[in-house]
Amino acid sequence: MDPQSLPNYARARQPRRASYDTGTIHAILDSGLVGHVGFIAEGRPMVMPMAYARSGETIYLHGASKTRIVAMHADGDPMTMTVTLLEGIVAARSGFHHSMNYRAATVHGSTRLVTDPDEAERALMAITNHLLPSRWDEVRPMHDKERKATGVIAIEIEHASAKIRQAPPADDVEDHDLPIWAGVIPIVTALGAPVGDGIGPDVPAPPSTGLARRKFA
Fold first, then answer.
1. Model pTM greater than 0.85?
2. In whole angstroms, what is the distance from residue 58 CA to residue 136 CA?
3. Does domain 3-170 have CATH number 3.40.50.300?
């Protein structure tokens, strides 16, 4: 994608860290667990951390039918979402050059209320399986009252970009000989061993927990 064809709000400020490659953007979205969703509510900007799932160029979100993000949006409203994967603290020889190594994706699009029952079920299945692969097949079917209480909203992606930093500190050359440690402290995301809730029958952890842990191995 030619970044010059994008509106200003969809372009990264630092071109050297920007990527507009669809595969790169999708990989970040598919690796994250929480998206920070931005929208306007009651005339004010709002940002909410939410579980999500991607299907092609559509992001699915869900919440109680009466929550702001569902109840206050109509088809075509603007919405944005950012997913950030932290990978390291970059410690430099000066405070000015401290940074983070990360991969981040930002999508801009328009909302669409999902009213088709079949699409809503596919969306809820996708969100569940994004958190724990194959989990939808392990749990009981949703009750009708649960479906009615759950709203599903789609963000149809119109513009998207990635921003990536994976490098050592960018110290000034004249600081290289200072007796100050500099480098990168890796940030590792991992899932621990499953801990049951201690209620009901004693059953082993299902395959979905192992599949989820592999995502961060």
1. yes
2. 20
3. no
